[in-house]
């Protein structure tokens, strides 16, 4: 009906900030990372995912999207030669998330398979300063009168309020803090995939769900403003466009519309490359578009890497 | 030359130039008549050999490797599909005869420089190669008093904790639904193997620069097509003709690591470490079945990929080949056969496809050996294999004067742990982990 992120913001009592937070941008600008050499490798990796990894001429999105993601994660993981604390991370696939909360007397719930989750032993330090958190008190949440904010949500009779990521991991798990969620839109048919706006809304809801469950596990079920905000990152892609998001949960007091709000930084619609030409395009015996990757943007990978390294560097 | 032209056009009966023109050698090298050879299209053995010769010349003269592969696999005929993971009895003997492989039990002896010595847990100092970055300090451990030029040490305790964490996450901590029927391997051992390899490779990449430039594939395809031996066509419109026996391997390893530089050879190219079994029966007795489809040669990515050499493959045995099934059917000795046949067939296909990507084929035999490694596991038991490809010339023509044999070193399957109970891994076996680490740290001498 209207952009999904605005609705998700109201549902999760969140204030939106465009662009990535300065902490993450600072990691990107760190010259010790050796990003120049990595560019060449990332180009190879993109070519491998889009062109080379299967014997068919043009691999389909269902294949190349996960392959691209695995290759990018492999490059990021190989940085643990330089930063040994990166080994304190573990990827978990097919995690189920369940979180419940109340918003102005409407009971809301996030449930389902939340893509691929990366957990770490240490939590990410809060990204926004105390002043910024307090400043969100003045921010007024956008309402959609006369449309009810729960439009397009499925109404379900819930008999048990399930509330923990402890539901997907048992106690004593050595990597208790959710770090980053990855969403891969890899359906072949365009209508089966989420549009970028809807993908961002989905990322926000799941990041919020994970953060809320973690906060309730750490600080108990009472709604209150958190002393230690919980930060969860999220990256969504369809194989070419990337959406980056950093979500900071400042409060679990979600019933009222006033008070401290949560914060989310979104960097949307980052292209990793323009085109991947599998077969050279020939018009009138002249090669107009040679085979290969064109329009490669190294910045998108730098942001990916910065989000991966956030908390460990 | 005009004189020569006149000489050629001389009709019989003219006697002008009955004596040869002195000082005029009849244009050196240029024949008077076209060469007298057998025809191309006749139904005769000579014509068949000329056609084969022309095919060989076409493949030799192909400009690019893709063109060579396309010509090599152009003609489609019924061929035997060889499955690396098979329940056939004594399949490893058959596979060794198809691929001319010698099986040497145990791992190949490696030089002392390549083997990372393991220090006792609790050591404090760090020693290693000079350019080791400072961030490595907490990860490396050392035996006191080591010389400055010693190879870097590996902290087994930390790697053991990584492995245990991966195992516990997949089997204990993460709440998963019940496994689907007969899909137990996809539920726990599959994800465990993926986690294990990715985290181990990442943590060892600091020590092995080859790993730092490697490419990790999940469920890639590896295919190879070759001829070996001859047979007479039994029925059909081609009945009675002598045809090469064609084989095709289509393999799906669980995980594979490809690298841009080749692994060093283990033994010289012409070494003879044993005998290849000779089996007098037709391959269909194994049982092996014929099918006609595309002749693919593929290492996991196309020729354009810079990581064109193989490092290590990881295979997961499916539920059909579980140990319990063999024990229940009283075929305990076939358990090891399953691991061995998987190792030999998969590694032969991979190394041979790598060799073909470099332009070698059965008429142009390899000039350097191709080495790759594999780990075959069912989640708990691990078997390690190392394969050296010395020859691709396996067709009936080329094998006659070929003294070379391919070599495969393999171990028996050993358990990595005994049991996982209540968040604890009991009976962890350090040797298996050490062998895995040695495999991952394998690299060319100059790196």
UniProtKB/TrEMBL annotation, chain A:
Domain of life: Eukaryota
Gene Ontology biological-process annotations: translation
Pfam entry (one): PDCD9
Ranges in coiled-coil conformation: none
UniProt signal peptide: none
Primary location group: mitochondrion
Family according to the record: Belongs to the mitochondrion-specific ribosomal protein mL37 family.
Name of the protein: Large ribosomal subunit protein mL37
Record organism: Cettia cetti
From TrEMBL, chain B:
One Pfam family matching this protein: PDCD9
Keywords in alphabetical order: Mitochondrion, Ribonucleoprotein, Ribosomal protein
Gene Ontology terms for molecular function: structural constituent of ribosome
Main location: mitochondrion
UniProt-listed GO biological process terms: translation
InterPro entries linked: Ribosomal_mL37/mL65, Ribosomal_mL65
Localization in the cell: Mitochondrion
A single Gene Ontology CC term: mitochondrial large ribosomal subunit
Protein name: RT30 protein
Gene responsible for this protein: Mrps30
């Amino acid at each position: 009906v209207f952009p999904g992120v605005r609705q998700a913001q109201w549902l999760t009592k969140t204030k939106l900030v465009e662009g990535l937070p300065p902490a993450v941008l600072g990691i990107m600008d760190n010259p010790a990372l050796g990003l120049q050499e990595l560019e060449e490798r990332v180009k190879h990796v993109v070519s491998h995912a889009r062109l080379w990894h299967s014997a068919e001429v043009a691999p389909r999105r269902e294949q190349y999207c996960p392959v691209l993601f695995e290759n990018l994660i492999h490059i990021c993981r190989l940085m643990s030669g330089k930063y040994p604390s990166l080994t304190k991370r573990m990827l978990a696939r097919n995690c189920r998330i369940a979180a419940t909360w109340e918003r102005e007397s409407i009971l809301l719930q996030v449930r389902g398979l939340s893509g691929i989750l990366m957990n770490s032993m240490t939590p990410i330090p809060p990204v926004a300063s105390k002043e910024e958190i307090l400043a969100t008190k003045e921010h007024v949440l956008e309402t959609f009168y006369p449309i009810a904010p729960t439009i397009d949500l499925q109404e379900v009779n819930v008999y048990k309020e399930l509330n923990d990521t402890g539901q997907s991991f048992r106690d004593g798990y050595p990597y208790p803090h959710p770090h980053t969620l990855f969403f891969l839109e890899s359906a072949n048919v365009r209508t089966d995939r989420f549009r970028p706006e809807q993908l961002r809304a989905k990322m926000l809801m799941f990041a919020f769900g994970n953060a809320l469950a973690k906060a309730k596990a750490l600080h108990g079920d009472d709604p209150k403003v958190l002393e230690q905000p919980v930060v969860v990152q999220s990256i969504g892609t369809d194989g070419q466009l990337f959406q980056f998001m950093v979500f900071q949960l400042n409060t679990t007091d979600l019933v009222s519309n006033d008070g401290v709000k949560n914060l989310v930084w979104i960097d949307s619609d980052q292209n990793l490359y323009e085109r991947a030409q599998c077969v050279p395009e020939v018009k009138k015996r002249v090669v107009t578009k040679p085979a290969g990757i064109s329009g490669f943007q190294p910045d998108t990978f730098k942001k990916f890497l910065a989000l991966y390294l956030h908390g460990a560097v | 030359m005009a004189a020569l032209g006149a000489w050629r056009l001389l009709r019989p009966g003219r006697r002008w130039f009955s004596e040869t023109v002195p000082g005029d050698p009849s244009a050196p090298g240029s024949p008077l008549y076209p060469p007298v050879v057998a025809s191309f299209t006749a139904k005769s053995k000579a014509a068949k050999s000329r056609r084969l010769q022309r095919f060989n010349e076409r493949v030799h003269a192909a400009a690019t490797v893709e063109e060579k592969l396309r010509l090599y696999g152009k003609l489609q005929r019924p061929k035997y599909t060889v499955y690396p993971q098979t329940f056939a009895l004594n399949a490893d003997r058959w596979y060794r005869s198809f691929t001319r492989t010698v099986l040497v039990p145990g791992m190949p002896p490696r030089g002392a420089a390549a083997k990372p010595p393991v220090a006792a847990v609790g050591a404090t100092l760090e020693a290693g190669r000079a350019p080791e970055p400072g961030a490595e300090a907490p990860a490396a451990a050392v035996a006191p008093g080591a010389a400055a030029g010693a190879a870097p040490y590996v902290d087994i305790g930390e790697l053991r904790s990584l492995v245990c964490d991966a195992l516990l996450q997949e089997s204990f901590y993460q709440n998963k639904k019940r496994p689907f029927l007969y899909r137990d391997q996809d539920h726990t051992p599959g994800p465990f193997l993926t986690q294990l390899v990715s985290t181990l490779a990442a943590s060892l990449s600091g020590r092995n620069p080859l790993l730092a430039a490697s490419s990790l594939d999940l469920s890639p395809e590896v295919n190879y097509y070759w001829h070996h031996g001859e047979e007479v066509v039994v029925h059909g419109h081609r009945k009675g003709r002598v045809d090469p026996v064609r084989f095709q391997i289509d393999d799906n390893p669980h995980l594979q690591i490809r690298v841009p530089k080749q692994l060093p050879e283990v033994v010289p190219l012409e070494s003879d470490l044993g005998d290849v079994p000779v089996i007098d029966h037709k391959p269909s007795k194994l049982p092996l079945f014929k099918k006609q489809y595309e002749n693919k040669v593929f290492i996991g990515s196309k020729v354009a990929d810079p990581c064109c050499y193989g490092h290590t493959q990881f295979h997961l045995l499916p539920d059909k080949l579980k140990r319990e099934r063999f024990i229940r059917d009283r075929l305990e000795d076939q358990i090891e056969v399953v691991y061995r046949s998987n190792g030999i067939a998969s590694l032969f296909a991979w190394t041979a496809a790598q060799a073909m990507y470099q332009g070698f084929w059965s008429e142009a035999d390899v000039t350097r050996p191709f080495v790759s490694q594999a780990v075959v596991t069912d989640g708990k038991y691990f078997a390690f294999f190392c394969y050296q490809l010395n020859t691709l010339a396996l067709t009936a023509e080329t094998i006659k004067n070929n003294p070379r044999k391919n070599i495969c070193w393999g171990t028996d399957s050993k358990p990595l742990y005994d049991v996982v109970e209540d968040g604890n891994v009991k009976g962890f076996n350090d040797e298996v982990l050490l062998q895995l680490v040695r495999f991952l740290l394998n690299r060319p001498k100059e790196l």
